From TrEMBL:
Coiled-coil region(s): none
Annotated region described as Disordered, given as residue ranges: 80-106
Gene Ontology MF term list: proteasome binding
Comp. bias (Pro residues): 93-106
SUPFAM superfamilies reported in the protein's UniProt record: Ubiquitin-like
Protein name: Ubiquitin-like domain-containing protein
InterPro entries: Ubiquitin-like_domsf
Biased composition (Low complexity): 83-92
Originating species: Didymosphaeria variabile
Amino acid sequence: MDTSAPIDIELTLTHHGKPITLTFAQDATVVDLSERVASELSIPPSNQKYLVSPKIGLLKPPFKDPTLPLSSLQGKKINLMGSTTSEITSSTPPSPKPPPRAAPAP
């Protein structure tokens, strides 16, 4: 058995209370995670936020450190917050603003 082959990284995200397990190459970065979430879950990067605990905190595109290796996130709890494009378009539009109030009479 060849043990020199790189071991893939497996991350489990929680999105809307459901666990989602994704596998990445050993050298994958947070940018790879964002691209995979966009393609497989239909959540565009502009809607993605990752709450990583303990210690790392909130990550969202564009990332402060796009080269952050996913190996540093292994074993951490990752909550994916974000809506798919279909969830956004199917939501009700915001209610119209009330008309401006008239200025009080002098």
